[in-house]
Design goal:
Elements: H1 3-6, H2 31-35, H3 73-83, H4 92-103, H5 108-118, H6 122-131, E1 143-148, H7 151-155, H8 158-169, E2 182-187, E3 199-201, E4 204-206, H9 214-225
Helix pairs in contact: 4-5, 5-6
The chain binds FE2/S2 (inorganic) cluster.
């Protein structure tokens, strides 16, 4: 992409920082083009090299709430994650990430399975899993859309962006659309305050999102999810 197309040196082009996700503005880059193929759904389920086995999961196209948790390649990955921590308790966050990657959300039963694997109490695991909003405690759609309405984004129209998502998807806050594609929630600061409004869709950030961007963004996701 040329500098002028990015809105850089060519001062006649309105600057809309595409952010690291690269998908805001004109929506002209694919996720693979921005993040690299190795980060877009093709990483091996066994986690690859142990040193990267704890990194945040990619979001699977198909969530399987009833899938076995730690079998086959996922068992290999669990073992790699555990090998990175002298104290099993330290592995809790990446193992919860892995469980959510497989099942899409964390039920009480899933939390108990994680507790058993890490030799922790059920209550401890539950306390951690329910503390962080990044863990879904109920099923979510193919695309979990989290709109930041904290201070920076709020001052720049975060509420309007959230309203646009709800309106164009046709759901209430926290609901999933009938086609199972979208769940829309409001979240606190996503640490992208310099590029309001920030929206996280699955593991991907969209920055400088404005209400008028929303219909095209949803259409694009529908194509991806079809
Ligand atoms: S206030 Fe929205 S990302 Fe920080």
């Amino acid at each position: 992409m040329s500098d002028s197309k990015r809105g850089g040196p060519d001062r006649n082009v309105p600057f809309r920082n595409p952010g690291w996700a690269g998908n805001t503005g004109e929506y002209e880059l694919s996720e693979a083009e921005v993040r690299g193929e190795e980060y877009v759904g093709i990483r091996s389920k066994d986690g690859g090299h142990p040193s990267i086995s704890t990194t945040m999961p990619y979001i699977l196209d198909e969530k399987s709430p009833d899938a076995p948790l730690f079998e086959g390649e996922y068992r290999e990955r669990l073992d790699k994650i555990r090998s990175r921590y002298p104290d099993l308790r330290g592995a809790l966050i990446p193992v919860l990430n892995l469980a959510q990657e497989i099942r899409g959300h964390l039920t009480s039963e899933t939390m108990k399975e994680v507790a058993a694997e890490l030799e922790l109490s059920d209550a401890y695991v539950r306390g951690v899993a329910t503390f962080y909003t990044m863990y879904n405690k109920a099923p979510v759609g193919r695309f979990l859309i989290q709109v930041c309405t904290n201070i920076s984004c709020n001052l720049c129209g975060g509420d309007e962006v959230l309203a646009a998502f709800l309106k164009h998807a046709g759901v209430e806050m926290g609901e999933t659309t009938d086609d199972g594609l979208f769940t829309i929630t409001e979240v606190e600061c996503l640490a992208a305050c310099g590029f309001p409004t920030a929206v996280q869709i699955n593991s991907r950030y969209y920055e400088n999102v404005q209400p008028e961007d929303v219909p095209a963004l949803l259409d694009r996701l529908r194509e991806e999810g079809a």
